Amino acid sequence: MRDQLIETLYKAIDEALANVHTATVARVVGVNATTVNVQPVVARVVDGQTINLPIFRDVPPVFMRGGNSYTAHPIAVGDYALLILTERCFDNWYQGKDNQPPADYRMHDYSDGFALIGISPLAGAIPIPQKVRRVGDSEVTGDYEHEGDYILTGNVTINGNLTVNGDGGGGTVNMSNTTLNLTSGDIIADGVSLKTHTHGGVQPGGGNTGVPN
To answer: Is the dihedral of CA 199, 204, 210, 213 positive or negative?
Structure first.
């Protein structure tokens, strides 16, 4: 009798734990404006049968954010994500209501998840670099500060001003095997214009040359 009771309790505990959802691996199957649709790729086994879980829609992705700054990256169908499931329903919070009771009293439910994009199976694992490595197109809005060497492979487009300050207030720009094409504007060196400068004492009679053509 005692053994049957213990067995019944263990079975009840196992069934309860089987429905306590914490985190699982999922694949992105749809990308929306601010959310993603994901489908878990780890199947469940219920009564000896393998069951694939359905698509979970409108899951908020996780981006690193602080104050007015954030880092956001593109998300593509096929990306893998760690689907993190919260203890309680967060619908009220998601609608902008802090410190409110849950809209629904479900717990550890598949409905309440965030998608942390960027995990990979072994075949697609990213080697751990010695330095921060950024691969792919990148766009920076706002102030950006970088300390240390910076190596860029690709094209650079600057909409604005470029200021170079080297050690002690003086900087050197070294260019090799490079053609500088200036389609408009001017280059000024110590107040001397590349477009309008003249040379004195080289014309017959000591006059100045004309401006460059």
So the answer is: negative
Among candidate residues 21, 33, 34, the one with its CA nearest the CA of residue 60: 34
The tens-digit pLDDT sequence of the chain (213 residues) is: 778 888 888 788 877 777 788 999 999 999 999 999 999 999 988 888 999 999 999 999 999 999 888 999 999 999 999 999 999 999 999 999 999 999 999 998 899 999 999 999 999 999 998 888 888 888 888 888 888 888 888 888 888 888 887 776 667 788 888 888 878 888 888 888 888 877 766 656 556 666 665
Please answer whether residues 113 and 58 qualify as being in contact, where contact means their C-beta atoms are separated by less than 8 angstroms: no
Burial level of 36, CB count in 10 A (0-12/13-18/19+)?
buried
Could you give the CA distance from residue 73 to residue 115 in angstroms, rounded to a whole number? 13
84 — phi, psi (to 5°)?
-95, 125
Distance CA 140, CA 39 (A): 31
CA nearest neighbour of 82 among 43, 26, 42: 26
Domains in the chain, ordered, with CATH? 2-168 (2.40.50.230), 181-213 (no CATH)
